[in-house]
């Protein structure tokens, strides 16, 4: 039986002396895809060059299956299996890896898809991040050095040690981290200080431990795996602790490290989500809560992978938050723009920044359910058929403060809006996330010099993600529903991205509104998708209400 080589499940065959044609083409090529990684050298390419006695750098690499065909057969008998490329990234969140049983199921899930060579990204187990933060707060406020009184630490220790035991891996994979964590908490208690920088270091223990346990378990069951701390493999960020941004240098560095290791000694990479390294401080940073999604999309872009999968505890992105309305349904397709808007306006399902690398690299993102892998999930791509789309999803952001700003000067006074925005800029406040009342007091004080300002608290933003080409139709329906419910809309805004209409209502009416809107758009069966062709949307309204008298 002639020997043959496997390229991502495509068995190829070739005459021995065919020339090795090398060209830099498609990103999603099936195998020797140096182009995909923007690296100079690919393992498979290297193998092919060895096959043909070529050495040194590969100028460009062929991505065409037909060429593999020409090259591989015959010589393959001599060389054996050419290494395969990493194909996708699979991110599992805390809810997916919250126990030994869940880790086993996730391992089965990964190994049950043999055609994929995934990079695995994991979050901390279950609610570990919350427990770490609570433990930090507790030792800070009580200053007690007796760690056995800190329930959250006890819980974290028990969870990780129990998981290690149940999976049958060596306790040493987490014991040093547990010891160090205790020392850190004692340090916080002693110096009575918990800076944002220390907070990031504190929460990093969650991901550092979950990935070590999981990699050890994969190795134990015979699937060779290698653990990575993201802050050690090139995730370079700004020094904005607790909400760091990933810097461009990350992409080549991460690609070089993961790809290089894979080529020289293939093993499933298991990478900590959520964590990076500040470029100035060299300290551990985090990307903000839910930041492991961003780790996954960054790796996807860095390596030019075929697909990014984020595995959750729901059947994909849903038509609304299932904790608000249990009849929420999966949305089968989304564009990067829609998904980004949805995340930005508060849908917990995706990290707000996570779509950026995927969009830039044009890598499809699939949101799947690790508890129900057969469900199709949501596929997020650059574009989709919008011809029938009306409303895609409803997002609720509660406890928002609204500033009602009315100019005291003449109508049309130029420079007014510039002054309003420069006030926010000078005070370093993002319009959308004014965090503390102290900050608000400063803003109001400054704005009162040029305007009448009303501070309206306890408001909610309901964001309607959908086809804003149908905004008149959407708004007609929305106002009908809200009128029958006796709800007054206090502000309306259409995002420049053209996929989002936002409404501001009182907090205590918000959930009722979402349920009623969901019923009307998605359950009554008459309008979630339609062929009706109506006009274009209304004019833009600013993020907060500004009038001129
Ligand atoms: N529109 C939405 N679609 C899906 N999930 C949503 C939505 N809004 C809020 N959620 C919540 O987001 C959670 C995300 O899943 P989860 O598994 O917790 O994420 P992760 O694995 O990243 O921690 C879901 O459990 C769900 O309750
Ligand atoms: N563990 C971090 C990062 C993360 O992404 O978690 P999850 O994937 O479970 O949302 C957090 O809780 O925020």
TrEMBL record:
Keyword Cell membrane: no
InterPro entries in the cross-refs: AceGlu_kinase-like_sf (IPR036393), ACT-like_dom_sf (IPR045865), ACT_Aspartokinase (IPR054352), Asp/Glu/Uridylate_kinase (IPR001048), Asp_kinase (IPR001341), AsparK_Bifunc_asparK/hSer_DH (IPR042199), Aspartate_kinase_CS (IPR018042)
Gene3D superfamilies: Acetylglutamate kinase-like, Aspartokinase, catalytic domain, VC0802-like
Biased composition (Polar residues): 9-25
Start and end residues of each Aspartate/glutamate/uridylate kinase domain: 87-369
EC number in record: 2.7.2.4
GO-annotated biological processes: homoserine biosynthetic process; lysine biosynthetic process via diaminopimelate; threonine biosynthetic process
Record keywords, A-Z: Amino-acid biosynthesis, ATP-binding, Kinase, Nucleotide-binding, Threonine biosynthesis, Transferase
Enzyme class: transferase
Catalytic activity: L-aspartate + ATP = 4-phospho-L-aspartate + ADP
Molecular function terms from GO: aspartate kinase activity; ATP binding
Protein name as catalogued: Aspartokinase
Organism: Rhododendron simsii
